[in-house]
Structures are given as C-alpha cells and as structure tokens.
Amino acid sequence: GENVEQHPSTLSVQEGDSAVIKCTYSDSASNYFPWYKQELGKRPQLIIDIRSNVGEKKDQRIAVTLNKTAKHFSLHITETQPEDSAVYFCAASTDYKLSFGAGTTVTVRA
Amino acid sequence: DTEVTQTPKHLVMGMTNKKSLKCEQHMGHRAMYWYKQKAKKPPELMFVYSYEKLSINESVPSRFSPECPNSSLLNLHLHALQPEDSALYLCASSPGTANLGYGYTFGSGTRLTVV
Prior knowledge:
The complex is a heterodimer of chains A (110) and B (115). Chain A has 110 residues and is mostly beta strands. Helices cover 0% and strands 59% of the residues of chain A. In chain A, a hairpin with a 4-residue loop joins strand 7 and strand 8. The radius of gyration of chain A is 13 Å and the shape is globular. The mean pLDDT of chain A is 95. Chain B has 115 residues and is an all-beta fold. The interface between A and B is medium-sized, with 23 and 23 residues.
C-alpha cells in the first residue's frame, strides 16, 4: 500500500517567516495530494490540494508543489501568523483511501 | 448543505456500555468513512461504505460495528470498549470511492472517552 513520510515532525518559526513541510509517497499511482490543517480538538480542514497533472498551486499565503518523478510534494506558508499554529497533515490518494503523513506541529512565535 | 454532521460531540462511556455514534450528510455522497484519531496523530481509516455496502474493513476489532441504514446516514455501534479506544472518531463522505479529490468532507468528530 501507499506509504507517506512527512518531515519535519515539529517546526517553530518566527512570525512573518516562511514555513516549509515536505512529504514523500511511495505509490506512483497516487493522483491526489491534499494538505490538512488541524487545530486542537477540531476536524482536519482542507487548506490546499493538488492533482497529479499539476506541478504547483498557490492560494494567497499557501502554496503546494509536486514533483511526480521524485514522488514528493511540499507545503509552503509565507508570512506566517500566530493563527497558522496547528498540526498539518499531508496525504496521498489512490482509489478509496487517503494515506496520511505523520503530521507536523507548527508553532509560530510572536 | 455541504456539511457532514456527527453526534454526539462528546461521549463518555464505561467499558460495559453500549453506545452509538451517528454521522449524517445530505450532499448525495455515495461513499462514507469512519476514522479513528489519537491526539497529534493522523486519522486512521476504519471502515469504508460504498453505496450503503461495507466495502473496506481495515481489520477493526469486532467491538466496533458499523451500519449504514441509508445513503445519508452512517452509524458506529460501540460495545465493550477499552480505555485505549478513547479517541476522536471522524466521519467523512465523498461522492464516490474513486477520485477522492472531489468533495471529500470530514465531519467535526465525536470525542470518545472510555472509562
């Protein structure tokens, strides 16, 4: 089955700096790569996603890049704000299943 | 309505109790899912229903029993749980089980505590 690895496990950044989270996947058939943000006690919230026919996607301060050849994808958050503090999960999808990375706890220091 | 509604939001149950979690969606989605999530860990898939039939059971213990009475409703029946089953239980739905990139939606979850 699909195996998704996510790094780093924790990330502390100064407010206003950028944050980058990287994921690798194993199944070349994966075709959908969402990123979720989860605040304490709340549901995972989809913040951005990318499909396998696209290399990069941007939405305001958030961007995702996908390298199908290397089987890795990354989340970039620019101009970080305290409200960006949360756990972030990457995922890769084939057929019925979302396979999640282990998560990255992001702390934005004011 | 673009939401997946889960009830109750919180549940405390004893190890000998029987309780049920409920999940409802009115988006016309034909695939529904149960996940278990421990704190700061990723969601773990438990069950997949497709067109009201159980299509995937990820080797979940029999003390968890899913049920899909109709296309909008998904239940998870709980019996003889252990304290380690305490977790956030998430329901999700999608239009189908293929091409999950379109409309995959999580519910807000039920926080379960087993005492």
